[in-house]
Amino acid sequence: MAIMGTAGFGIARCAGIPIDRLELSATLTGALATAVVASLPEPVTTLAAVRRGALQLAVGGIIGGNTFDMLFLTFSDQGYREGSVTTQVASRISSGSSWAS
Questions:
Q1: What does the pLDDT look like over 38-48, one tens digit per residue?
Q2: What is the rounded CA–CA span in Å between residue 76 and residue 70?
Q3: Which of 13, 54, 72, 86 has its CB surrounded by the most CB atoms within 10 Å?
Q4: Each residue of 46-94: pLDDT tens digit?
Q5: Cβ neighbours for 86, distance < 8 A, ≥ 6 positions apart
Q6: Cα distances (Å, whole numbers) of residue 72 to 7, 33, 79
Q7: Distance between CA 83 and CA 101 in Å, rounded?
Q8: Helix 41-51 vs helix 55-79: angle between axes, to the nearest 10 degrees?
Q9: CB of 58 within 8 A of CB of 49?
């Protein structure tokens, strides 16, 4: 637990450097990094399944992961009372506004 905490602190400090230098939104950068890290197991398991010749497993993993993402987005849209989540994200990205506002 101490190693994970220390590693997390170190990663956060290292991530702050390019965010400051490139003047990026820390929230958007964190969200994108989380999305990338969270989705890494999918291509790894797909490639492993293809190498073993389990094409049905590979296709099932891709379809299942994307279906879950769409269900999550649908439920998020229903729970968000200020309109569509995707519309809010698109407008905040195009305007460069903070997620905290």
A1: 888 888 989 99
A2: 10
A3: 54
A4: 999 999 999 999 999 888 878 888 888 888 888 888 877 777 777 777 7
A5: 73, 77
A6: 30, 19, 11
A7: 16
A8: 160
A9: yes
CA 51 to chain CA mean position, Å: 26
Task: Show the tokens assigned to 28.
Answer: 């958007």
What pTM value is reported for the model?
0.51
Task: Determine the distance from the C-alpha atom of residue 8 to the mean position of all C-alpha atoms in its chain, rounded to a whole number.
Answer: 17
Structure tokens at 85: 């989540």
Kindly provide the b/e burial profile for residues 32-60, where b requires at least 16 CB atoms within 10 angstroms of the residue's own CB. Answer: eeeeeeeeeeeeebbeebeeeeeeeebee
Q: In terms of DSSP H, where are the helices of the chain?
A: 2-22, 26-39, 41-51, 55-79, 85-95
The whole-angstrom separation of Cα 34 and Cα 28 is 10
Residue whose pair of structure tokens reads 């993402």 in the numeric block: 69
